[in-house]
Every structure is written in C-alpha cells, then in structure tokens.
Amino acid sequence: MSAELVFMMGQFEALFPTDRLYARNHMWATVSRDSLRFGFSAYAVRLLQDVYFLDLTIEPGMKISAKQEIGSIESKKAESSLYSPIDGTVFACNQALLEDPSEINVDKYGNGWLFELQGSTDSLLSPEDYLVHLTAAWEVAQRTIKGQANL
Fold this sequence. Notes:
Radius of gyration: 15 Å
Strand content: 35-45%
Strand order of the largest sheet: 3-4-5-11-10-7
Distance between the termini: 39 Å
Structural class: alpha+beta
Largest sheet: 6 strands, antiparallel
Number of strands: 11
Oligomer: single chain
CATH class of the domain at 25-120: Mainly Beta
C-alpha cells in the first residue's frame, strides 16, 4: 500500500491510503483498467464499528445512478442504506463479503471491498480533498452524537 494520510476522529486515527480516490459518501475507489473498485473508508468503518450484515441489491451488468440505493448494512452502531457513489455499470460484487462481512472490519482497504463499477472518476476526491471534506463531516457527526444535530 502507498503512503497514508491521517484524520483524527477524537482520539482515534483514521488512515487513508494516497493511492486511491474517495467519494463524499465515505467510500474509497481504486482504478483499474476495466473498473473502479469501491469499499468503505476508515472514517466510515470507525463510525459503523463491527459490521455484521451486508446486503447488495445490485448485480453485474446493472446500470446505476449516483445516490441510487444499492443495498444495506448493519453494524454494532448503525443500520443504513447504501448508495452508489457514482453513475456507472456494475462490473462485480464481492460475493465473499455477502456471506461474511467481517473483512470490512479487518481489511477495509483490501479484501473488504464491496463492488466494482465501470464509470467516471470525475466526481471523486483526491485524498487531500477528502480530508477537507471529512473536517466538515466530522463536525456534523460530533453534533449528532451529542444530540445537537440541529445546531
């Protein structure tokens, strides 16, 4: 893996490899010749804590839009719908993760990848721009955790 940038989530470090791009919905993307592989960033995994269920409602060949619901996830801390980070065509889904999503917790930037899409990187962020985005997202998360979401 390449160099990493660090974002402090309170007392916890969230590491972000610089060899990939990031989406505003806290997914990373690696670029290959045929597709973009997506997974959850360290920020998302830290907020979720202990993922134990993953359901993807997409399959190879499907055309999907950015922000389209593509599945759901459950963890110790949250139940949430998942949304596509970009427009594209589904190239592959990580079938092993559907049977045992624990790899999301232990190898988020490797075997914990979720799906691959064929699409454009235009709306994705550089690692540095993602850290800027995280600063604002962390402020909102802190207010939400403290019950002050409307401030």
